[in-house]
Structures are given as structure tokens and as C-alpha cells.
Amino acid sequence: MSLLEARELNVWFDLEGGGTLHAVQGVSFALEEGERLGLVGESGCGKTTTALALLGLLPSSAEVAGEVRFHGEDVLAGGEESVRPHRWTDVAMVFQGAMNSFNPVRTVESQIVEALELHAVAEGAVARARAGKLLESVGIPADRARRFPHEFSGGMRQRAAIAMALACEPSVLVADEPTTALDVMVQAQILELLDGLCRDFGLALVLVTHDLPVVAQLCDRAAVMYAGEIVEEGPMERLYHSPRHPYTRLLFAATPDLADDGAPVASIPGAPPRLDRPLVGCPFRPRCDRAFGRCAEERPLLRRVDGSRAACHLNDVPA
Amino acid sequence: MSVVLQEPVLQEAPIRSRRGIVLETIRRRPSAAIGATLLVLVLLGAVLAPVLAPYDLHKQVGPVFGHPSWSHPLGLDDGGIDMVTLLMWGARISLVVGFAATLVSMLIGGTVGVAAGYFGGKTDTILMRITDYFLVIPDVPLMIIVAAIWGPSLFHIVIVIGILLWTSTARVIRAQVKSVRERVYVKRAQAIGAGHARIVLRHVLPQVAPLLIANTVLTIAVAIFDETALSFLGLGDPSRISLGKVIENAFQRAAISTGAWWAIVPPGALVALIILSCSLIGQALEDALNPRLRVAHLSARRFRLRPLVGRGSEAL
Lengths: 319, 316
What we know:
The complex is a heterodimer. By secondary structure, chain A is α/β, with parallel strands linked by helices. Chain A has 10 helices and 12 strands. The longest helix of chain A has 18 residues, at 184-201. Chain A starts with a strand and ends in a 9-residue tail after the last strand. Chain B has a single domain (29-292), classed as MetI-like (MetI-like fold, Orthogonal Bundle), CATH 1.10.3720. In chain B, helix 1 (18-28) crosses helix 2 (30-47), helix 1 (18-28) crosses helix 13 (265-289) and helix 11 (243-252) runs antiparallel to helix 13.
């Protein structure tokens, strides 16, 4: 049994002008204890929506189908009532733009204490001491605890947000773009911190990012998302050295390389398809450099291809 | 812990507290200080009326419509009662009604605004349509009707004014709550398991409180004005003497044709003074607490034409 498992997760949003947007389309993945999974893809491909769906945090305008299993228990089945006991105690989240995830008029300490008290982990002076310890574990001196969020730098706020996520000792941490909007040095520190925390606490990590090098540095496995679905999923090494989906290959090709000779970085022409109308064939076909007849007619399914999973008709063509 | 990272040490620079900002704004806008001083003086006079009032409120101490003199600086009214005494006691009732009605309207307006903004959707639509409905009702005629039906009493006046003045507060608060509830930390609070009540009280209300305070002060002015109007029309509590009642009495007993201006002008001026001071304070608070108004191009009051480039300071 996997620690955290998404099965056929689908999310639709009602659009204001009528119609629906199929934001997440049949996403399935499993996360084992202590494992680190990267969710990568370009903007609007459903990464964040998937992450929020894992915690049942989507707005009421979203319709969710499929299962999210924690230790085999479907946590979404009973609505808010069945998710709440798992949120933060089992699966915690560092939100996108976590620098803003602090209430500006309360001290950082009081907000970490709030999490502790709401889950009856600790109270009063004990909770405050624990908040200090948590902050120290992310590299912030405990005597900063009584400061207000605006007195922290961006990197410190990101650390504090991670500390808050760790408050109830979860076994899974979902981090949504934890390094975005930070400069390179601070990014490196945050990655190092996440790496250390995962090792020390045996945390499993779901890292949502569009930054491939970040995933490569931190994660064992990655799932590449495109147009709301996972197009390829497998060990990081395999994805890099022998991608089984053209999108994965083009994504890696579009990443600047430090050792490069200065050749221009490749880009993938075109834009992802609109998700408010049914897709026929492969969603990536219009941008694919190796599309053929079948791609326009039949939608490829995610299938096992030596060690990883990929959704591409090319894998059926004998090389 | 294995993670030891260097973070530049925070400078222990003095932080501008909200109180500091308020004080600084008052210094920059002396009108607020003037308003506050005036209001405090009026409040002191009203609260200490039993001690400070020079004469008895119910005793004739001189001739009817007696002229101002050294012993009666503002003259006497139609019953020969000292005007200064009357004003002190009258301001007492006016202020009580003003504050109480404001409290009622802030409770209603705050609740409606927060509920509409926080829950959104159908709740929002229904509450805002009700608000619109109250907004288009002409205040004074409705107050007159309700006060006439319910009968004159201080409590009724408070309720009538209270249930008519909450609309603009509700709209302003709703808009602010809508913006606050979309912030990441509200979602985070929800994620760590905070219920609606906790999110509203701990994370939303502190953000809209400044707005509520500024609105409160401005509403007090309107409430006092409305109370005066109702009393003047004879719909106030006949047994309580408010400033409006004083004006009404003088008006009814032909103070104008008698030439007894001192019976009618001072109470009117006092009402105007209270309203003015509340407006001055309220506007300054709004300026101080709403950072958007501190941006020059968004604030009509602070907008200044600048000299054209190249012509130097003599241009304007």
C-alpha cells in the first residue's frame, strides 16, 4: 500500500460564461514513504490544481472526481469531514507564494501556535516553545519568533512557511513552487533545507515546480504534466537520459545548460491547448516534432514503457 | 539539526507601529488634532454636565428669552432656563443617541459586510440586494414614518437610525473582506483546520477593523445629525432634552420672531461642531489607515499639480 496515492483524479472548473474547464484529467500517481516526487510542466497544466486537490483545498466552484488515498483510505470520499483530520497532521502544504501565507497583523509565532493548537498538538507555553524549535529547525533563530512577517526577508518567510507546514509532523509535504520569486542563492538554501528536512524527518515530498533543475536536484521521480494530464512519469535519470515522450525531451532541451557552448536554448513553439473543449487525439500533437497520422485520431494512454510510464504513440512504433 | 544556514541578521531598526503612523498623520494633518480636541471638549462638557452645569436644568433662573449676560453667557430659553446648562445636557442625549445608533449600525453593517464578503455566492447576492434596497430608501422620510408609528422614545430613535445607516459600511467592509479572503494566509488558515468563525475573527476582522473604525467615526456624525433632525420634527423623546429638542422648543415658541437668536443658533452650531469634528477625525483616520490613500495619485485630497519640467519652481 502506498503512502499517498492519487487515482484517476479529475478536476473541472465551472467557467463564468458557461461551460467547464477540465483542468486535471485522470491523474494517477503513487508516493511511497520518504519518496520525493516532482510535478513539472508549464504554466496552466494543472500542477497546482492537482496539489490542492490532494488536500481537498479546491474552491467550491471546482468539481472533483477520483480518489486520493492516504494509507489506502480514500480521504476525499467523505468531503470536508474526512479530509480535515488528515490535513496538516498527515499531509501538509507549503503554498505557492508562501511569503504571503502569513497574516501580516499577527506574529509568526502566534500563527505557528495556531496550527499546533487547532490540532491539539500542544498548547500555551509548550506550543510556543515548540514553535521556536520548529523555526530553529529551518534555520531561523527562535528569538525571531515574536516578530511580524514583514520583519522577515523573503527567504526567511519561506522557511517559516516550511516550519509551519512541519508543525504537526506530517508524513507528506506538498510544496508548491517553493523556490519561485527567490533569488538563486536563497533558492539553493531552501532546496538544501528541504533536502535536509526530508532526510531528517523521513518526509515524503511532492514538489510542484516548472523548474526542471530543481526537480533534478531534489527528487527521485518526476511526473511531467501537460494539458491537465501526466504524459510521462518515471525516475529522474530515465526522464533525462531516455525520455519516452517528445514533450519531456523538448522540456529538457529547453533548459539552459551551464556547460553549454552558448548555443541558443531551444523553445517549444506554440501553446498548450484550451481545456474548455474536448480534446481529440494527442494534446501535444500540434507542438510535437514527431507527430504522425495516429496522433490526430487517437488519444495516447499512459502506459508502462521500460521502467517509466509514458503517453505517446511513438512507443508503439518499432524503432 | 543538520541544516545550519546563514541569514543576514535583521536590523533592529525601530518599526513604525500603527499607532506611530496615526500620530504622524495627525501631525501632518492638524485638522485631525483640531477635530479630536473639539470632540473631547464637547464630550467632557456632556459627560460632566451634572457637575459642571452652572444651573438646574428644570428651574427657571431668569426671564423668558433673557438676553445673554455675564451670569448667563448664552442667555435664557423660552422657559427661562440657562442656555449653557441646556446645551450641556442636550449634548449628552445627542451624543448617547449618536453613539448608540452608530453601534447598532456598525453591528449590522459589519456583520452583513463580513458575511457577504466572506461567504460570497448566494449569501453575497441576497445580502447585497437587501443592502441595495435599504440604500435607495430615502432615510429621513422612513425615519419619520417609523418613529411616528413606534412612538417617540429614545430607544426607538436609536434603532431607527441604526437600521438605516449601516448600508455604506456593509458595502465598504464587504469589498475589503472579499479581497482579504483571497489572500494566501486565509487559505493556509483553512488548510490547518481553522473553522469559519476562527478565520473571520483572527484573520479577516483585524484586516478590516481600521476601515470599520474610520466608518464608525463618520457614521457618528450622521447619526447625531439624524437625531437632531428627528427631534426637531417632534419625533424625539419628549421627556429627554437633546440638542434637536432644544432647537425645536425655541422654534415652536417663536424664538426667531422674538429675535432670541441665542436660543436657536448655539444648539445648531454645537451640532455642526460635533459633526465637523467627527468628519475631521474620520477622514484623517481613513487617510492614516488606508495605505492606498497615501499614494498621491489615488487621493484627490493629496493630489497636487507639479511644476512643468524646465520652468522651475516659478511655474506654479
